[in-house]
Amino acid sequence: MKIILLGPPGAGKGTQAAMLMDKFSIPQISTGDMLRAAVRNQSPMGTKAKEFMDAGGLVPDEVVVGIVRERLQLDDCHNGFILDGFPRTVAQADALKEVLAELDQNLDCVVSLEVDTEALVERLTGRRSCSSCGRGFHVKYDPPAADGTCLACGGTLLQRDDDQEETIRNRMQVYHEQTAPLEDYYREQGLLQVVNGMQDMKAVQQSILTLLQGC
Ligand code: AMP
Questions:
Q1: Which residues make beta-bridge pairs with 3?
Q2: Which of 25, 84, 167, 202 would bridge 56 by S-S if both were Cys, CB 3.0 to 4.6 A apart?
Q3: 86 CA closest ligand 1 atom index
């Protein structure tokens, strides 16, 4: 299965990608996670990317395409992959097409998660994750322990730098201007499937699994 998960920030792409990874034993390729790792490692690329990420903008196409090109060449991608957060521009989608053609691979499906903007802002401002085990929480809908630590391991919870409201609004605008056109791009190629991302997590999961049966 070679899948792209499309959708605005906070639509649940990461959560659903993790589920698909377990279900199909294929890797989740999250450009956001890879960029955050580069920022943590203070690599030259990470340092440059951080400026764009902190502002809620997009990291330049050539940087992100380079990361994905390298990742897709690894052996664990031969049987499939889930792209989460990539592509985010038409230029990235065109580059992906070329990379896949070089690797003699085709996409099976592009799943677009649709969620309304105000729900996204609430999801993102409340989002926290454990610094030790990585478990995700939401301060209102999936709260941590009463003392604000991780329920699973007692670790300290972190909020992403770009989950502040002003940055979130900027990320939404960037999504509408630069990423949303990919829906038409993939619709024209007969690859797009739309899922209602306002349903609860399990219902979204079931909808995705059902539609993948037809891909
Ligand atoms: P995410 O975790 O997918 O929300 O990504 C966090 C941030 O990383 C984004 O707001 C962008 O600054 C950057 N980023 C992630 N993926 C891409 C991409 N495909 N193209 C450009 N920037 C990206």
A1: 82, 109
A2: 167
A3: 19
Angle in degrees, CA 45, 63, 24, rounded to 5? 105
Ligand 1 site, residue 88, Cβ cutoff 6 A: yes
Q: Under 8 Å CB-to-CB from 152, ≥6 apart: which residues?
A: 130, 133, 135
**pLDDT tens-place string over residues 36-63:** 999 999 999 999 999 999 999 999 999 9
pLDDT digits (tens, 9 = 90+) for 76-121: 999 999 999 999 999 999 999 999 999 999 999 999 999 998 889 9
Please state whether 85 falls in left (phi above 0), alpha (psi between -120 and 50) or beta: left
Cβ(27) to ligand 1 under 6 A? Answer: no
Query: What single DSSP character describes residue 60?
Result: P
Residue 127 annotated as catalytic: yes
The C-alpha atoms of residue 206 and residue 215 are separated, in whole angstroms, by 15
* CA-wise closest residue to 178 among 92, 107, 109, 120: 92
Q: Return the best residue to mutate from 15, 31, 124 for the ligand 1 pocket (most ligand atoms within 8 A of CB).
A: 31
215 versus 77: which is more confidently predicted? 77
| Active-site residue (options: 13, 71, 123, 128) | 13
- Report all structural domains of the chain as residue ranges with CATH numbers, in order of start: 2-116+165-212 (3.40.50.300)
**CA 100 / ligand 1 centre spacing (Å):** 21
Strand partners, 29: 83
Q: Is 171 a catalytic residue?
A: yes
